[in-house]
Amino acid sequence: MVAPVFSVTLYMQKSNLRQNSFLLLLVVFGLYIASELSGFLSGFLGALTLYFFLTKPKTYLEKRYKWGKRKATILLLFASFFLIVVPSGLIVGEVTARLTDVASHSQEVLQSINVFIAEQEQRFGFEILTPDTLKQATVFFTNAATSMVGVIANSLATVAVMYFVLYFMLLNQRELEAWFYTYLPLKDNHIGLIGKELHSLVVSNAAGIPASAVVQGILALVCYAILGIDHLLFWFCATAIASIIPFVGAAISYVPLALMQYAAGQESQAWVVLIFGIAVLGTVDNLVRLYIQNKWGDAHPLITIFGVIIGVNIFGFIGLVFGPILISLFILLIKIYMREFHVGEISLPGDTVKKSTV
């Protein structure tokens, strides 16, 4: 009886070795493909973001108006393009055109700044700008103008990839969701929980960021119009874009504007812009963004902060949305692992608390 048992054990060892070797081959092959497609990562993540926004409208069109899935998909792609991409492109284009014009006349701009700083140096009695600093500023403006062109070209490629991927995701929505239920090594209820949490996190982050940007842009527009500041459209766009940038936010737009007003002799307007930016725009940013994120995503502020830091380093601009999602999903997967393999008692989102009947 020893020989058959030994042969069975040897067969199982060989089978495990073959399985692990094949799994290793799949992992290496998958990582290689992922590395080659890493340049399209922003497009894939953008498609995933719009996918969560458009699945319900697509289902509604199919059930309410009996539309085919291809017709509903194409309509939603065009609608999202004209409602989201086109306005975003116009805002970015306005700011880019103005900054490019400033960069093309960088010498004149820097000379004006140099004159202003020299006046302040005489006024306060200490040196603010050195020749080396002025030279570095010139290089910075030149590089900024060059990078703007690259950013626009990259954005166009990202949008093209995003809609190409999004078309097939929406067209094969049911097959895609069925694939996850079939191949993910989790229970169906946990897969559904991951999908629900991912949906709420994407919606809260993707809606909270632009909503806060638009509100801050409109408030800034009203304030600047009352003060009689020129180029209102540019400052609206600049404030909206700057508010998206983490930590510093709209200060990137209203601080330079306040300095420009101060340099032009409008000291009272400069102080109004600065105080308005700190007191109003900063408060609105926190209130609007946190309200939307707590309403749909219920993410802890620390997750949002550290998620943005990690996400921007990994994903670039789209990391503002997916950075916090990455950390939140990691925490959720830890909880699911503990529940799946009975590591410990852990509560998951959606668990109901049983009330005592005593």
State the secondary-structure class.
mainly alpha
What is the general shape?
A: elongated
Number of strands: 0
Most strands sheet: none
How many structural domains can be distinguished in the coordinates? 2
Q: What portion of residues is helical?
A: over 70%
The average pLDDT value, as a whole number, equals: 76
Low-confidence stretches: 353-358
Description of the molecule:
There is one protein chain. By secondary structure, the chain is an all-alpha fold. Helix content is 84%, strand content 0%. The longest helix is centred in the middle third of the chain and has 41 residues, at 131-171. The chain is elongated.
A few lines on this structure:
The chain contains 12 helices and no strands.
Question: Which helices and strands occur, and which strands form pairs?
Answer:
Elements: H1 2-36, H2 41-64, H3 69-104, H4 106-124, H5 131-171, H6 173-183, H7 188-227, H8 232-244, H9 251-263, H10 267-297, H11 301-315, H12 319-340
List the defining traits of the structure above:
single chain, about 350 residues, mainly alpha, 2 domains, 12 helices, about 85% helix, disordered C terminus
